[in-house]
Design brief:
By secondary structure, this protein is of the alpha+beta class. It is about 35% helix and about 30% strand. It contains three helices and four strands. It has helices at about 1-10, 25-30, 55-65; strands spanning about 15-25, 35-40, 45-50, 70-80. The strands form two sheets. A two-stranded antiparallel ribbon has the order 1-4. A two-stranded antiparallel sheet has the order 2-3.
Length: about 80
């Protein structure tokens, strides 16, 4: 998973480090009202879209995903 995360981070203009990743189901993303866009470069990675513009609404969704996901936080961030 770390390898996938680094490659994805390197493609993002705003990413400078990989801090970790989370594993959760497609159903949880849909339950949160978000859309899934496959990332065809990796079979276990998707892009999640449809985030609300309101910051507090985003935080609520992030908390829901965090509560119901399995996360892996790296002890030391890895430069992308």
């Amino acid at each position: 998973m770390q390898e996938i995360g680094l490659c994805v981070a390197r493609r993002r203009p705003d990413a400078d480090h990989l801090y970790g990743w989370a594993l959760f189901t497609r159903g949880l993303v849909q339950e949160a009202g978000l859309a899934i866009h496959p990332d065809y470069a990796w079979d276990r990675h998707v892009n999640i879209a449809g985030w609300p513009s309101n910051r507090s609404d985003c935080i609520k969704i992030q908390q829901l995903l965090a509560e119901k996901s399995v996360g892996c936080r790296l002890c030391e961030p890895i430069a992308a």
